[in-house]
Amino acid sequence: MALTTLDARTALIVIDLQRGVLALPTAHPTSEIVQRSVALLDAFRRHGLPVVLVNAAGGAPGRTDQGRHIGDFPAGFADLVPELKQQPSDHLVTKRTWGAFTNTDLEAYLRKQGVTQVVLVGVATSIGVESTARYASELGLNVTLVVDAMTDLHADAHVNSLTRIFPRLGETGTTQEVLDLLERTRT
Question: Which residues pair with 32 in a beta bridge?
Fold first, then answer.
């Protein structure tokens, strides 16, 4: 793990911590992922840094080997879990693809806020988190991935993202490392 710094305008992006996604079986307990994400949310809000809450409300059209993607999810699926304590200052991004940037206003929002770095947490590591991290990296943003505040539907996919993909997209660290660095750089 090689977390070095947090830029002056760093945003926290929380991926798919919503009722429908958290009801799926995952490699790690989602209650722990939510708890760590909430600790980061509280810290980012306290320091007046941008917070982005992302939810998935559908899937991209097209065929896959695993079957056709779902167009829309059932009622309540996209509802963010109450533990996130959504605030009026939080920016909500509703996506219909794996990544939070495609066909949303996320890039424009981050640019307007002067954001140069994003910190990513959520579910699923190899899907929503990785897709969003790839796009952020392609935009030239500094990317930080909080490895203990994310999980996947499959343990091997989670490990692959953490060990093979994320070190090429940005820096990785734990929730506590991000919190400590946030306190050191903001006091």
Answer: none
- Structure letter (DSSP) for residue 77: T
The pLDDT of residue 45 is: 98
Q: In terms of C-beta density within 10 A (0-12 exposed, 13-18 middle, 19 or more buried), how is residue 110 classed? A: buried
For 10-186, give the CATH class: alpha beta
Residue among 103, 109, 8 nearest 51 (CA): 109
Reading the block at residue 62, the tokens are 């097209």
Determine the Cα–Cα distance for residues 124 and 26; give it in Å rounded to an integer: 8
The pLDDT value given to residue 67: 63
Indicate the domain borders of the chain.
10-186
Q: How many CB atoms lie within 10 A of CB 163?
A: 11
Task: Specify whether the CB–CB gap between 118 and 136 falls below 8 A.
Answer: yes
Residues 6+ apart with CB under 8 A from 164: none
Contact 124/27 with Cβ under 8 angstroms? Answer: no
Residues whose CB falls within 8 Å of the CB of residue 43, separated by 6 or more in sequence, listed in order: 179, 182, 183
pTM: 0.95
